[in-house]
Design brief:
Shape: globular
Number of strands: 7
Oligomer: single chain
Order of helices and strands: HHHHHHHHHHHHHEHEEEEEHHHHHHE
Structural class: mainly alpha
Number of domains: 2
Strand order of the largest sheet: 3-5-4
Strand content: under 5%
Largest sheet: 3 strands, mixed
Distance between the termini: 43 Å
Length: 540
């Protein structure tokens, strides 16, 4: 105390935050594919090593990170939260690595190495000659990466742990589409890079050769899967209780009873279908739901885009309009004013995914869309872009990267928990559904086209497949309708968009949709700097 004033003495940088920073740097080195996807600074000019040896090195890094974290003292609440988030994620990833889940990973949508590498290359910064050289270097590594992945899958076969045949078939289809559509996806990406200003003839030649080799590696991997893997693949796609429980912990950030979760999922699916029928009956009395959907998709009077390019332009305009309106009520980081909309590579899974801005600002946030050719009805996409763009994942995952709060680099770079993130996306859909009159329709969607009771946010609610049943079951509880007024005092303020008149609350998960907790097992910390919640906490 000095002259009646309290003097705060800084203890210097937090040791826990130092551990987190070193781990993220090491992770970018070991997993450069992840580094590109999540925009980590210091990511080298290569892709991840998907071989068993590469996976073993990743497991060692996880063990080292946990050991260093255990040795590090905690000074305050920010340290405790940062350590809890990092420990939870590292333990989950190590459990999967120890079980060698990578030896049967075939998800063609997002998780299999071919999907991950392509996602990383498709969205990596590509603006100048330096970026073109990095692309050439990474493309040259694709054949070795796919060979290492095949060795990992062969190990799973040799250990009598094959992946599902249906997933292998889908992966083959993706690989073929990528390698053969329009002369090869990687060849097209290389040609785009070669045309950048300042790219010399030597680099252009290297790009052409590397792109052709990368496309060939995908084609060869498809051959191997068809000839060697599929005959021995598992006919049953169920993953078994142990792997399913690991996946639940990974996706929800907490343990859950799979049977209870599946039962709740059936209830939620029934509720959503009933809501869809009510909405349809209000706008089209007596017309079956399937016919309502068909009319919305094919009626020439309904708003539509002429094709994928026009749709992307419309989505961008909509995001800008929503961001401008929301910025009148919330402090939104300036780095979120730019959001790219791009088409997914050929053979990609239906839907969309969002990637946050890079740490160094070289790439803004980007939403990657799978769009059908020809006329595109807009009604299916407006809610979708609120989920992926503004005020959905772009505000959530993009905003946390620039949040002025005591968060470690791990929390802002690798701490995402998908159950929470998808809950935010569902919350954003409902928020926009409730707030639409105050925000207004996009320019291409005039009010006359929105009939009373027209389909709204719940029509596009995403779900996930449960191993406990044959129908979709969502692992996150869709939020109840809440008023915009109440929403503005909750999750928004703790994240990137704080209302100018209200302080930040203690926990950012106040109003975001949360996983249904198990009554008997404890929850772990969420990824956004909140204190761990007990499993008995009531859903938001």
């Amino acid at each position: 105390m000095v002259a009646g004033r309290l003097v705060l003495v800084s203890e210097g940088p937090s040791p826990v935050f130092g551990v987190a920073d070193r781990f993220v740097g090491r992770w970018a080195e070991l997993e450069p594919t992840h580094g590109l996807i999540y925009g980590l600074a210091g990511t080298p000019g290569r892709l991840s090593d998907w071989s068993p040896q590469g996976r073993a090195r990743v497991a060692d890094a996880l063990r080292h990170g946990l050991a260093e974290l255990d040795r590090t003292p905690l000074r305050d609440g920010a340290d405790r939260r940062a350590a809890a988030v990092m420990r939870d994620r590292l333990q989950v990833w190590l459990a999967s690595a120890t079980a060698r889940d990578w030896a049967r990973e075939l998800d063609a949508g997002f998780l299999a190495p071919p999907a991950m590498d392509r996602m990383a290359l498709a969205t990596a910064p590509l603006a100048d000659a330096d970026d073109a050289e990095l692309l050439a270097s990474r493309l040259r590594g694709v054949p070795d990466g796919m060979q290492g992945y095949a060795v990992a899958l062969q190990l799973g076969l040799d250990q009598d742990r094959p992946g599902a045949g249906v997933l292998a078939e889908r992966l083959v289809a993706m690989l073929r589409a990528s390698a053969r559509s329009d002369g090869g996806y990687f060849g097209g990406l290389a040609a785009k890079a070669a045309a950048l200003p300042g790219v010399d003839t030597r680099t252009a030649t290297h790009l052409q050769e590397a792109g052709r080799a990368a496309d060939g590696a995908y084609d060869q991997l498809a051959d191997w899967l068809e000839e060697e893997y599929l005959p021995r693949a598992a006919p049953d796609p169920a993953v078994g209780p142990e792997r399913y429980e690991r996946a639940l912990q990974d996706h929800l950030g907490q343990a859950a009873d799979p049977v209870e979760l599946a039962a709740w999922g059936w209830e939620e699916l029934d509720r959503l279908e009933q809501e869809m029928r009510r909405e349809a009956a209000a706008g089209w009395p007596g017309v079956p739901l399937a016919e309502v959907l068909d009319r919305l998709d094919h009626d020439p009077g309904e708003p539509s885009a002429a094709g994928p390019a026009e749709l992307l332009d419309w989505l961008g305009q909509l995001d800008q309009q929503v961001a401008r309106r929301l910025s009148e009520e919330f402090d939104i980081p300036r780095q979120l004013r730019v959001l790219r909309h791009e088409l997914a590579p050929p053979g990609s899974a239906a839907g969309a995914y969002y990637l946050p801005p890079t740490e160094d600002g070289a790439r803004p946030g980007v939403v990657v869309w799978t769009v059908p050719a020809g006329r595109v009805p807009l009604w299916r996409w407006q809610t979708f872009t609120h989920h992926e763009g503004m005020p959905g994942h772009h505000l959530e995952l993009g905003g946390v990267r620039f949040l002025a709060a005591p968060l470690s680099r791990f929390q802002t770079g690798l701490g995402e928990i998908s159950g929470y993130s998808e809950g935010w996306g569902l919350y954003a859909e409902r928020f926009m559904d409730d707030s639409a009159p105050s925000i207004g329709p996009p320019p291409a969607w005039d009010s006359s086209s929105r009939r009373p009771g027209a389909p709204s946010g719940s029509w596009s609610t995403p779900g996930s497949t449960s191993a406990c049943g044959s129908r979709p079951a969502s692992p996150t509880r869709p939020p109840a309708r809440s008023s915009p007024r109440r929403s503005r005092s909750g999750c928004w303020s703790a994240m990137a968009g704080r209302p100018r008149s209200s302080p930040a609350p203690r926990c950012c998960a106040t109003w975001a949709a949360r996983p249904r907790p198990s009554p008997t097992r404890s929850a772990s910390a969420n990824g956004w700097g909140c204190e761990p919640r007990p499993a008995t906490a009531s859903p938001g």
